[in-house]
């Protein structure tokens, strides 16, 4: 069977895209950003926290690769990565706020007490 020219063309396009994106996310080791993400995720127990941290860690790894080397990004700008970080942080806070609303918090209470935090963690782990 003859090789598919379109298949080979797509593979070459994917290799080129991978090289450009990889250059934005790592300095030396092609798996560096994954290792950094895994390290940060270990700080958290809750799967939802790990999900938010994972997305943020990818952006932090990208910023480290770009800012530490002074490289010009191949894809979105450095500013876009800062915006992404802010958005992920706000989404994470919004997620926690939505979870807290399911917990019985006395009117006028603004601090999360240890009991409320334990109830919140239990509910999040059940999801």
Structural class: mainly alpha
Distance between the termini: 50 Å
Helix content: over 70%
Largest sheet: none
Helix and strand element order: HHHHH
Tally of individual domains: 1
Number of strands: 0
How confident overall, as mean pLDDT? Answer: 84
Count of helical regions: 5
The rough form would be described as elongated
Low-pLDDT runs of 5+ residues are none
Report the β-strand fraction as a percent range: under 5%
Alpha-carbon Rg, integer = 20 Å
Short synopsis of the structure:
With 127 residues, this protein is mainly α. Helix content is 71%, strand content 0%.
Task: Provide structural commentary.
This protein is an all-alpha fold. It has one domain (5-102). It has five helices and no strands. The chain has helices spanning 5-25, 32-41, 47-69, 78-100, 114-126. The model has no long low-confidence stretch (mean pLDDT 84).
